[in-house]
């Protein structure tokens, strides 16, 4: 820490007792390093006092700071009392006041008078209105802006007065108050002040420093470098060049210090990385280049705080590390659950009669839970998934989740105060559960936030909606982070850019050195236009760019090894453009810069098919399987042997998922179940015209029965695509019934013999000593003009029902998934021929496709070969499944465009 060492040695040269000095710093982070330096120098006296410049200004102003939620509530109370038009409620007020308040603080800090700036803004809007002749319509955007600044010229002076009456002050008001007290303070204080490592000052801070210098009660140490100080084009030296011109710096008081460190030999590498998270994957390779494996003089600087988790993941091999940046609360699971809770409450405020399952499930998954709650939630999810409930009625939610310990959080809140109490109580209970440290901190921060908001709201009588409460909590939480405990003086340092002030490291690794991250760019959140900011000397994005440029150059000027990584991919707000600071050092500095391109790509993966060996246990299960072989088992094997193995041998099944839109499978089931119910009534009858006409009239009734059989809610089909699917299903069913009606009208004799005919124990011999037994269900068996028809319903279109088997292909004919429909019909024909009740009857097997319902039944035809040849091919397929030498190997599907 070269700069801090120089300061300490300078002060020790001036006095052996440092307690007489007050060291003023940009931030508190360097204090621990100063103490270490004093320890290394065997300093045994009292330590100096340490201040940040904000603390010193506050001490001089002697005002009670007010900010955040307390300031917003107080300000709205003042705003409401003025009866300004428009009369915004608190929710609308929060949309503009936080931005205005930052602008107001800037005005108070940098301009001579806030009243002058406010009046200027109003006058400018008046001139624009006059020039554009906006008329009397207050809804014109320009007119709204005029009225806004007219109101602010009334509101802000009153707000300032009300705050002063309570001795409260915003950051800007503190600066304004301190400005009047500085001369008196500098003249009368007996303290000595040392300002270390500052770059940009506000006017009040500059006045304080210069006044103390004039009274010989202050010293100022800057950390500058000739590289950017002497070059007028370098924005990094903008403020320091201005400070050098102060009259306080003369022959008797030098401007300390300007070094020549940046031009010293450095190893600078720039990494163009494809992807944001990919940057963190480069870190282990960079660490290999660092000789000191304690990494005690190495800093990883994250310009994007969201990279912290990914960075920590790749640093598992680093023994000691210190994280000086907090982890944002907004990114944690409990934070997400709280957001979901408030979203749910806003939905309930709209008088929703039911809960959308996607609004409830994330809450139940993210919130910490006891074992009892876990059981209730699992039962609830199982019921909802089983019955495919997309919209859960309040009554059903009470029935299924009433035993949940925090069920009250899912109900519509009577008031925001009551809901805050419920949230506080929930947080207290959660902390007694077995949860990890980060989640405990997350819950504790929220509990504290809920208490703060509740306490802040209590003095005010205006009503807070759930949406407004959510905004308050989000604003509070977005500024909160979980702090880490580490080794501040040992090991690797992980920091944000502002935490590096005054500190120097031999090895510096910066991530996300992109335009928009470094510098932040011109996306200032302000109501004051750029030209007006310039006119009144308020900071613009140009000054902010200069500040960031200084931090960047200062950090690397004392470093020997610099690694600059940027994300080259364009996505979201990221332009994929490297920071212009990188371009500057590439073009203007004397350093040789090594460029590396890191592609986030991989070689095409050579997909090895999954293979399961037929172990003795598997062969044992196959022996059991032989007792109940269905046609669907064989078609499953044809499609993919692994699917057959998982479902038929291991008896696994896919989890039910809630369908917001009816799936192809359940659409087929809806038609299938409806037809089953209709024809079940007609079973055993020779159909008459009237039978079918009555059935057609009652289709809706039978569809409702099928919906109940599917365990779906009737309202699932009341709107959207599901309403259309139901209408299409009805049309298909009508087509099938009308087809049968036409047959009967034309004099055909049609008799329904069986529906969902179950068969089992139908033996099929593979050889003299080995057999299997078929089982299954035939959708429909009827007799048309004396011919027995075996009918299978299919949702898909009909394919390959013309069988062409000869001696050359008999073994492998049905080893093809494209012929699975024919395979199934062949098995049904074999089964029916072997059922005693159907012996001697002419048999026809076919498929009735829902996709082509008007075609009727399309029959299986043998162009070559016969059923005996077909069964030989099926036998070959079964023997392959049972063959212990042939493993189950995945069928990898290839797709072509």
Automatic annotation (TrEMBL):
* UniProt xrefs under Pfam families: PDDEXK_1
Highest taxon listed in the record's lineage: Bacteria
Q: Which residue numbers delimit the PD-(D/E)XK endonuclease-like domain? A: 629-888
Q: Which InterPro entries match?
A: P-loop_NTPase, PDDEXK-like_dom_sf, PDDEXK_AddAB-type, Restrct_endonuc-II-like
UniProt name for this protein:
PD-(D/E)XK endonuclease-like domain-containing protein
Q: What is the lineage of its organism?
A: Bacteria, Pseudomonadati, Bacteroidota, Flavobacteriia, Flavobacteriales
């Amino acid at each position: 820490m070269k700069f801090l060492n120089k300061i300490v040695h300078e002060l020790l040269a001036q006095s052996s007792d440092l307690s007489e000095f007050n060291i003023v710093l940009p931030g508190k982070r360097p204090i621990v390093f100063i103490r270490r330096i004093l320890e290394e120098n065997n300093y045994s006296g009292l330590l100096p006092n340490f201040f940040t410049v904000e603390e010193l200004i506050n001490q001089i102003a002697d005002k009670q700071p007010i900010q955040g939620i307390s300031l917003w509530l107080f300000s709205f109370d003042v705003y409401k009392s003025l009866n300004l038009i428009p009369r915004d409620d608190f929710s609308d007020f929060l949309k503009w006041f936080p931005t205005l308040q930052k602008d107001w603080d800037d005005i108070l800090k940098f301009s001579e008078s806030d009243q002058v700036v406010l009046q200027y803004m109003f006058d400018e809007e008046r001139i624009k209105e006059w020039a554009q002749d906006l008329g009397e319509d207050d809804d014109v955007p320009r007119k709204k802006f005029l009225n806004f600044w007219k109101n602010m010229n009334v509101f802000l002076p009153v707000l300032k007065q009300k705050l002063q009456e309570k001795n409260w002050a915003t950051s800007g008001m503190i600066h304004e108050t301190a400005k009047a007290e500085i001369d008196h303070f500098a003249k009368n204080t007996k303290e000595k002040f040392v300002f270390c490592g500052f770059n940009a000052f506000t006017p009040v801070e500059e006045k304080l420093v210069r006044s103390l210098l004039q009274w010989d009660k202050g010293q100022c140490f800057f950390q500058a470098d000739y590289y950017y100080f002497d070059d007028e084009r370098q924005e990094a030296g903008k403020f320091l060049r201005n400070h050098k011109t102060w009259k306080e710096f003369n022959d008797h008081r030098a401007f300390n210090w300007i070094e020549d460190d940046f031009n010293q030999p450095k190893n600078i590498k720039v990494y163009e990385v494809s992807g944001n998270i990919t940057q963190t994957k480069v870190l282990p390779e960079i660490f290999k280049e660092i000789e000191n494996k304690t990494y005690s003089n190495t800093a990883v600087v994250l310009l994007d705080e969201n990279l912290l988790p990914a960075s920590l993941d790749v640093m598992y091999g680093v023994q000691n590390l210190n994280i000086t940046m907090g982890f944002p609360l907004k990114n944690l699971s409990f934070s997400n659950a709280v957001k979901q809770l408030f979203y749910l409450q806003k939905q309930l405020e709209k008088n929703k009669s039911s809960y959308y399952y996607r609004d409830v499930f994330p809450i139940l998954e993210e919130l910490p839970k006891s074992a009892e709650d876990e059981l209730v939630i699992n039962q609830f999810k199982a019921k909802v998934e089983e019955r495919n409930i997309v919209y859960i009625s309040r009554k059903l939610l009470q029935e299924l989740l009433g035993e949940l310990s925090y069920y009250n959080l899912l109900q519509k809140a009577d008031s925001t105060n009551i809901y805050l109490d419920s949230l506080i109580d929930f947080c207290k209970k959660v902390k007694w559960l077995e949860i990890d440290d980060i989640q405990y901190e997350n819950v504790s921060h929220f509990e504290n936030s809920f208490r703060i908001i509740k306490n802040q709201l209590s003095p005010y009588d205006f009503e807070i909606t759930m949406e407004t409460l959510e905004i308050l909590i989000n604003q509070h939480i977005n500024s909160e982070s979980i702090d880490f405990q580490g080794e501040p003086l040992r090991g690797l340092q992980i920091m944000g850019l502002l935490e590096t002030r005054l500190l120097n490291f031999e090895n510096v690794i910066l991530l996300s050195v992109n335009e928009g991250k470094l510098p932040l760019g011109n996306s200032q959140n302000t109501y004051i236009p750029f030209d007006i900011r310039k006119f009144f000397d308020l900071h613009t994005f140009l000054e902010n760019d200069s500040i960031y440029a200084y931090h960047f150059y200062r950090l690397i000027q004392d470093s020997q090894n610099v690694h600059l990584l940027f994300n080259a991919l364009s996505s979201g707000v990221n332009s994929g453009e490297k920071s212009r600071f990188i371009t500057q050092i590439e073009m203007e500095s004397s350093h040789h810069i090594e460029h590396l391109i890191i592609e986030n790509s991989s070689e095409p993966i050579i997909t090895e098919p999954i293979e399961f060996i037929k172990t003795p246990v598997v062969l044992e299960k196959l022996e059991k399987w032989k007792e109940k072989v269905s046609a669907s088992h064989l078609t499953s094997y044809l499609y993919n042997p692994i699917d057959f193995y998982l479902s038929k041998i291991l008896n696994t099944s896919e989890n039910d998922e809630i369908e917001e839109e009816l799936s192809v499978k359940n659409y087929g089931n809806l038609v299938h179940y409806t037809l089953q119910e209709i024809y079940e009534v007609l079973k055993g009858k020779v159909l008459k015209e009237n039978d079918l006409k009555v059935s057609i009239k009652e289709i809706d009734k039978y569809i409702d029965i099928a919906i109940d059989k599917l365990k779906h809610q009737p309202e699932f089909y009341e709107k959207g695509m599901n309403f259309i699917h139901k209408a299409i299903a009805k049309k298909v069913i009508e087509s099938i019934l009308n087809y049968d009606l036409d047959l009967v009208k034309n004099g055909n004799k049609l008799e329904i013999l069986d529906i969902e005919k179950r068969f089992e124990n139908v033996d099929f011999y593979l050889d003299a000593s080995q057999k299997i037994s078929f089982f299954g269900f035939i959708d429909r068996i009827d007799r048309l003009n004396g011919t027995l028809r075996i009918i299978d319903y299919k949702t898909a279109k009909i394919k390959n029902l013309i069988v062409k088997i000869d001696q050359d292909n008999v073994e492998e004919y049905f080893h093809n998934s494209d012929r699975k429909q024919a395979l199934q019909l062949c098995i049904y024909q074999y089964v029916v021929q072997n059922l005693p009740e159907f012996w001697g009857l002419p048999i026809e097997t076919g498929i009735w496709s829902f996709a082509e319902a008007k075609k009727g039944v399309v029959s299986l035809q043998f162009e070559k070969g016969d059923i005996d040849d077909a069964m030989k091919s099926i036998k070959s397929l079964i023997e392959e499944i049972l063959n212990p030498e042939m493993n189950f190997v995945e069928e990898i599907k290839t797709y072509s465009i």
